[in-house]
Amino acid sequence: MVDDEEWMRDACTQILRREGFEVVTAADGQTGLQLAGRHPPDLVLIDLRMPGMDGMAYLKAVSTLAPDVVGIVITGYATLEVAVEAMKAGAYDFLPKPFKPDELRAVVRRGLEHRQASLRVSGLLRGEARTADLHLAILAHQFKAPLAALSQCVSVVLQGYAGDISPRARGMIEIAARRADQMMRFVHDWLTLSRLEAGEALQKEAGVDLMALVQEALDRVKQCPESEKLYIGCSAANDPGTVEADASALGELFANLLDNAVRYTPADGSVSVEVGGTEDEALVTVRDTGPGIRPEDVKRIFKPFYRAEEQKGIPGTGLGLPIAKSIAEAHGGRIDVQTSPGKGSAFRVFLPREGRREPAARRAPMETKG
């Protein structure tokens, strides 16, 4: 991260290190280039306006040191022209200040997924990658980058940086923004599920404080507009302790379950997380007061792209639950649901406590036909 504001560097570093990323920072472009020479980066966050070398010049220079680097331009001077120029200069994405922690996490994840797909393409061309990986590469390059650019430019217009827009035009642009966000979520989920099926679920495993991870997921979901009309709480029957896990993957599991619970629970309802377990197993239950699930649908909701009748009127990709199931199983755990129509649902995640996990068995490929 290259930014001349120390507080901004410190804040972003804390947020990203909690996700398991290695972060190095610099206060100016020249120092940033020296760092990039010693530690070739996967992704760079660049402040647009800095003394000496500005963000655009830095982005061009760092690309010669790390040709596959993903550049994210961050600035408090967001205009449509700046967004366009950043993309022309080779930036993958654009993040206007001020931004929320979730927005930073999301843009970094998107950027790193894009880089991973780029490396797959390079490996494929050298004959080092599986042919099946070409599908992921095509998906990432042909959909993700254009969608990211579309989403950012539409956001700049809606925030008024491109000038005033009529109420009618605003309504149409807001529809486009929602659709772009839905497509971005779909592509993200599809790529995630593909990695899980390829056995690439866990990147870095360590002892993880389960309660802290659940609380972080709760804090994120509380920032969603849909959560403002709901009661959201957390309780612990006992200390769940630590689990050996990839914190980022496990965080995505809980985020998916909470996101589903919030979207399917009507106003004035409740979403709660209960944490506990036994000596051998930790248990996290995500409970909602939504419409529940019919018995005939319960056995199919963990299959990719399947959506129960109660879910069809609510935007979603149909991949959140399969992803949650795959992540739980990759950690030696399991997930189930207790539900009935009209009485809400309770998704239970069982995870072996640290030191109690059995050697991973080879998991059969996931069924992809509903």
Please sum up the structure shown.
The chain is α/β, with parallel strands linked by helices.
Kindly estimate the percentage of residues that lie in beta strands according to DSSP.
Answer: 15-25%
State the order of secondary-structure elements, H for helix, E for strand.
HHEHEHEHHHEHEEHEEHHEE
Shape: globular
User: Residue share in helices?
Assistant: 40-55%
Overall residue-averaged pLDDT value: 78
Distance between the termini: 43 Å
**Biggest sheet features:** 5 strands, mixed
Number of helices: 11
Class by SSE composition:
alpha/beta
In what order do the strands lie side by side in the largest sheet? 5-7-8-10-9
Explain what this protein looks like in three dimensions.
The chain has 370 residues and is an alpha/beta fold. The protein has helices spanning 6-17, 29-38, 55-65, 80-88, 101-125, 133-158, 167-197, 210-221, 247-264, 295-298, 320-330, and strands at residues 43-47, 70-75, 93-96, 206-209, 231-236, 242-245, 270-277, 281-288, 334-339, 345-352. Mean pLDDT is 78; it is low at 360-370.
